[in-house]
Amino acid sequence: MAADAAPNVSRQVRSLLSDRCYRCHGPDGEERKAGLRLDDRNSATRPAESGATAIVPGNAAASELIRRISATNDDERMPPPSSNKSLSPAERELIRQWIDRGAEHHEHWAFSPPRRPGLPTVRNTAWPAGPIDRFVLAKLESLDLTPSPPASRETLIRRVTLDLTGLPSTLADVDAFLNDRDPHAYEHVIDRLLASPHFGERMALDWLDAARFADTNGYHLDNGRDMTAWRAWVINAFNRNLPFDQFTVEQIAGDLLPNATMEQKVASGFNRNHMINFEGGAIPEEYLNAYIVDRVNTTSTVWLGLTMACGQCHDHKFDPFTQRDFYQLYAFFNTVPENGLDGNQGNAAPLLRIPTIEQQQRQRELTMALSDAEKQLQAAENHHRQAQSQWEAKVVGDESVPADVRQHLAIAVDQRTADQQKAIETFYAGLLKNQPQWSDTHQRAEAARKDLHALENSLATVMVMSEMQPIRDTYILVRGQYDRRGEKVTANVPSSLPPLPADAPRNRLGLARWLVDAQNPLTARVIVNRYWQVLFGVGLVKTAEDFGSQGELPSHPELLDWLATEFQHAEQPVDGSPAWNLKALIKAMAMSNTYQQSANIVAEWRAHDPENRHLSRGPRFRLSAELIRDQALAVSGLLKHRIGGASVSPYQPEGLWGELSSRGDSKSWTAQFFVQSHGDDLYRRSMYTFWKRTCPPPQMSTFDAPDRETCTVRRARTNTPLQALILMNDPTYVEAARKLAEKLLHEATSDDAQQAELAFRWVTARRPGARELGVLVQLLQSARQRYANDTDAAQHLLNNGESPRDATLNSSELAAWTMVASAILNLDETVTRP
Amino acid sequence: MFSKLSPIQQLLVRRAFLGQTAVGVGSLALQSLLGGASAQASETSGGVLSQTPYPTNVKRVIYLVMSGGPSHIDLFDYKPQLRKYHGAELPDSVRNGQRITGMTSKQKSFPCVAPMFKFHQHGTCGRWLSELLPHTGTIVDDIALIKSVHTEAINHDPAITFLQTGSQQPGRPSFGAWLSYGLGTENENLPAFVVMISQGSGNKTDQPIFSRLWGSGFLPSRHQGVRFRSGADPVLYLSNPAGIGASDRRQMLNAVDQLNQIALESVGDPEIQTRIAQYEMAFRMQSSVPELTDLSQEPQHVLDAYGIQTNATDGGFARNCLLARRMVERGVRFVQLMHRGWDQHSDLPKQIRAQCRDVDQPATALVRDLKQRGLLDETLVIFGGEFGRTVYSQGELTATNHGRDHHGRCFSLWLAGGGIRPGIEIGETDDYCYNIVADPVHIHDLNATLLRCMGIDHERLTYRYQGRDFRLTDVHGNVVQKILVF
After folding, report:
1. Are A464 and A352 in contact (CB under 8 A)?
2. How far is residue A65 from each of residues A40, A86, A97, A318, measured CA to CA in Å?
3. Between the CA of residue A725 and those of A128, A631, B198, what are the distances in Å?
4. A453 vs A473: CA distance, rounded Å
5. B318, pLDDT greater than 90
6. pTM
7. B399 CA to chain A: closest CA distance, Å?
8. Are the C-beta atoms of A267 and A250 separated by less than 8 Å?
9. Are strands B119-122 and B428-429 parallel, antiparallel or unpaired?
10. Which one of B244, B258, B466 has the shortest CB-CB distance to A775?
């Protein structure tokens, strides 16, 4: 333990110094006080401007740092009282010990490349199913903790189905799994889920947050945009398991790939999802700057887990990134032929027109028709041109030829001026056009040209990246102000990270490849951490958005590095599977016994792992906004499973947009007034719900969905009364309860308890206990009596929602079961991933 | 050498054993140590500031946001000299390189416009106010007028985002969210932060508003403002669906509670206990909110004082003002009224008269009503918009008509209530109402001052996000001490 403790202490001290001291004694040169830099060992261990030495390794007593953090005098004490920061006695002691032991300095962990660790030894060799479990168990054993028992099979299949597809397991799936004696039954379930087209939808959900995807432009009048094609690309990319490095390159720079396909260009729309402004009177340069800043911030957060945003105005206070680093990254993205103010007609340039399969076919037909006609015209013209000299000889002196042409014809061919010759040719061509065969062909060509033009104008578009020539110059902007140019810079990666390879292009393609280069210390860690977050609710690094000095230290640093190197296959490709294989990564996590543990909290253990950071039990957390609704639609049979397509507008209270927007006066603004969908579009997965940025769908935002104005890689999970109101009263959930009840009444069971059990299993996958069943049956009986006495109330209840009601069913009975179904849909267990 | 549990863990353990809420000493430390939201999810009532560093009796805020940018020139910033310059070009020396919005930057002429309204002196303080604000004239001794507020923004979206969140770019928590986070709620049955919106009689087809103006930004979403609307469902999804009565709901919830309780016993997750409590609060809101929004018990003279009429053209502003009083009476921490229509690019004389008719009487009645009930000392009232308007005409200046463009370099707003020195005036602008010549108050200074009124040090109400401790005032803000009584 002692040997392991040293780097651990060093990390803790680094983290302390970062939080309390770096603001004035850190990477930001402009703010640095007394010339002292505590993030740099050389600076910290040599005499500062005052002559005193902050850190004398091995001798805390001689270290000025210790004297100052221990000073009782306000003028001397560090951090100064005015900073609102302080060090506790325990923290001071930790620093003292660290100096006494030699003040060993470790570079911030996340900036050193992950090294593939050896697997730790464990006492309980029977428990681990694979390397993940070895790391987790080793930590638990070092804390004298033991893993929890495995979750029940019902819990497990519901858990993994929700995690991998975002949909609940069907009862048939549950029963099949319960009855499957094959020792590989669980693996087969995982393989089935990974192959499901809903896997791509589930993974896309988090990606839409990260990419700040929305259906409106976000600023001011906030009218519509259409990034449907980009969303479809993302879903499809996850489904075909596009290697994550390629997934990265295509989204950052798909347009710059050699012979880029239309799909690859569509992928580059990732960095066009930011907000776009066209407010009358706004200054274009100001917003152009905002878009590029957004791209830098988003790209840095999503792939690098870095908080580059600080660099817009000044050097980073905590991490080794300068303002220059920020604008060098900015230069990669300051190359798009776009307007500062745009989007008033929907999508903003640059755009890509994207035909459907049918449109492509029609496009080919028209193009062919046009070229056929043009060829015929050309052939006819060539033929007639040869005939022209014969014609000329024939018509000399012909009265039907206009006088001026006659005069030209009288001149010998080699004596005519160019104008004279041209006049003759024009007249002759006119004669030809009047011939029936010629003019038909001519008309065909015209029609094809017109249709083709109309077709092209009707094609859907998607916003994409493209590179302007020449590119704009980039300057450091003084204090981040768009109109205060400082020094000129060119595109480059941050100087404290590995450099771009010498032969790499200095453009987005070079940047994209650098992000997924084996030398990059951050990307693989950041990405595996986020998929850990998807499956375990919390990342190994809890601050998934910040891997810098101010972020939290990883709970299992070696496991994180093992996963990162496994994902990259940087050192030892195992089974010939491609590197950056996301499905393989997720499968490894889901197959672990760590993942399969029961989430039940044993009271006496809770104290030892209150937040489950040691992973001594299974993860249990509330479902995300989208999944809560999708689950209700799925278990009630309402869900439409179609993948992709344009956004839809399910139920929402009237007037929500109209009270905020104001441009109903003109047809040129879109998305100003909410128009609810009908039919199938009411029941599509929530990831297709139209996302108006200035007024996001309340069903989603009340359950912590972000507003999609900026990149989000970690959602909060709150628990509020407004959520309860939605689950109780939103027509979505009342209708789902009714449909669930209808489904139930068609089942061949006559016993109330059996029926209640079935409804409970549909939703939670498990059989209710006797007490639980008792509660449900009691609710049923009182509701049955109530609605038998008041059939009007029953009718009213059943009229919620637009889906037709099954008129063959007794309304009081259906209303009573609707009440029971609604109770089940409102359970904590229902909205929680078990 | 190290004990098995870190101090953070010990705190968490203690909290877990104490039950789901950890309010009071230690929670601020806990919040800052954890650097995140999820561990706090269980707390619904307490804020992170268990006690405020400055003594204060101010508990609540009512923010009357005049969306669109009311003309300070025509309402508050009286400049008799301006008459002289009427119709004359704005001198370059006054404009002094100020950037101009794209709406007037191509205009060839910038003629100054004196207000087409009379000004009168009011109260013992002798405050000059436009004839458009006769009611406000009766409370000038209770309010403090700031004539030197300024902002960098010159367009609506960034300017109003700045006013409400302290940042021109989206992504930061709004003022009310910060207060909900810092101070929590005083009423378990109502949200801490409520927003109400009204469309005024002036410009009806311009500036939209956005939910980010009452959003929680990176704070947990429970701190976002809850929009109260007129009609059957003052809070979204408050009412039971047709066919479910209050007793049906109670029965259903009894079953849900019992089932959740059984789950709690077997699963042991304290989050389940919180969910049970939230369902109970939802049920209580189903009666507390309709009780709150039911004005039928208010005597006629109160309705009359606010000018509440059934066919009013104020978009509901008067009603919202009365509701605001009822909310602060019941302990709602932050009430934000958004009144739209102040964007007078053209047709200013007619539009601004209508806008003033919407708000003058209700806002005045609100202050007076709070005072009469002894609530004004505990409540901070703010009246103002995201910027002012230009002294020069936008579009053609005629004998009776003109417009004004956006102007952020100086504008006026007023404050009343707890902590505010009544009957004073702060700041001075030049003869053109164009530049500040004394006591500038930046939006950050204003926000620092408003927080100070609540007893909060604006530098200490912070939230760790992406490694940085964010605050409402970013890295700026000086408290305007002159305006405070303490």
Report:
1. yes
2. 14, 14, 13, 18
3. 43, 17, 25
4. 36
5. yes
6. 0.85
7. 26
8. yes
9. unpaired
10. B258
Structure tokens at A341: 């103010």
3 state SS of B265: helix
3-class SS at A532? helix
10 Å Cβ neighbour count for A545? Answer: 25
Q: Which residue among B99, B242, B460 sits closest to A800, beta carbon to beta carbon? A: B242
Cα–Cα dist A11/A15, whole Å? 6
Q: Where are the beta strands (DSSP E) in A291-408?
A: 351-354
User: How many CB atoms are closer than 10 A to CB B457?
Assistant: 16
CA nearest B111: which of B80, B79, B88? B88
Q: Is the backbone of residue B85 left (phi > 0), alpha (psi -120 to 50) or beta?
A: alpha
pLDDT band of residue A315 (cuts 50, 70, 90) is: confident
Dist CA A792 CA A798 (whole Å)? 10
Average pLDDT of A189-211?
A: 98
How crowded is residue A581: how many other Cβ atoms within 10 Å of its Cβ? 18
Q: What share of chain B is helix, strand, coil (3-state, %, to 5)?
A: 35, 20, 45
Q: What angle do CA B237, B165, B285 make, to 5 degrees?
A: 25
Q: How many CB atoms lie within 10 A of CB A405?
A: 17
- Residue A6 in this model has a pLDDT that exceeds 90: no
The DSSP output letter for A648 is B
Question: Could you tell me the CA-to-CA distances from A77 to A22, A49, A97, A757 in Å, in that order?
Answer: 16, 18, 19, 66
- For position A388, what pLDDT does the model report? 76
Contact A786 B248 (CB under 8 A): yes
Provide the percentage of residues in chain B whose pLDDT is more than 70.
91
Q: Which chain B residues touch A731 with a CB distance below 8 Å?
A: 241
- With DSSP H G I counted as helix, E B as strand and the rest as coil, what are the percentages for chain A, rounded to 5? 50, 5, 45
Angle between helices A625-635 and A752-764 (to 10 degrees): 140
Which of A548, A662, A769 shows the shortest C-beta gap to B205? Answer: A662
Q: Which tokens sit at B220?
A: 């947990």
In 3D space, the residue among B108, B227, B344, B22 whose CA is nearest the CA of residue A653 turns out to be B227
What tokens were used for A238?
């996850």
Is A600's CB within 8 Å of B267's CB?
Answer: yes
Q: B244 to chain A nearest CA, in Å?
A: 7
**Do B183 and B454 meet the contact criterion of CB atoms below 8 Å apart?**
yes
State how far the Cα of A63 lies from the Cα of A554, in Å rounded to an integer.
30
CB–CB contacts below 8 A, A to B: 278
Q: Alpha-carbon distance B486 to B418, whole Å?
A: 10
Nearest to A731 among B241, B278, B281 (CB): B241
**In the numeric block, which tokens belong to residue B474?**
């970013």
Q: Is B486 helix (H, G, I), strand (E, B) or coil?
A: coil
Measure in Å the smallest separation between the Cα of A244 and chain B Cα atoms: 24
Q: Is A796 close to B243, i.e. CB distance below 8 A?
A: yes
Q: Which three-class secondary structure state does DSSP give residue A614?
A: coil
DSSP assignments along B138-201, one per residue? GGGGGEEEEEEEE-S--SHHHHHHHHHHS-SSS-SPPHHHHHHHHHB-S-TTS-SEEEEEEE-S
Lowest-confidence range among A100-109, A176-185, A684-693, B363-372? A100-109
Fold of B54-235+313-483: Alkaline Phosphatase, subunit A (3.40.720)
Return the structure tokens found at B54. Answer: 């400055």
A689: three-class secondary structure by DSSP: strand
pLDDT at B26: 29
**Chain A residues lying within 8 Å of B9, measured CB to CB:** 610-611
Average pLDDT (A802-831) is 97
- How many whole angstroms separate alpha carbon A826 and alpha carbon A820? 10
Contact between A662 and B340 using a beta-carbon 8 Å cutoff: yes
Phi, psi of A728 (to 5 degrees): -80, -40
Residues in chain A, overall count: 834
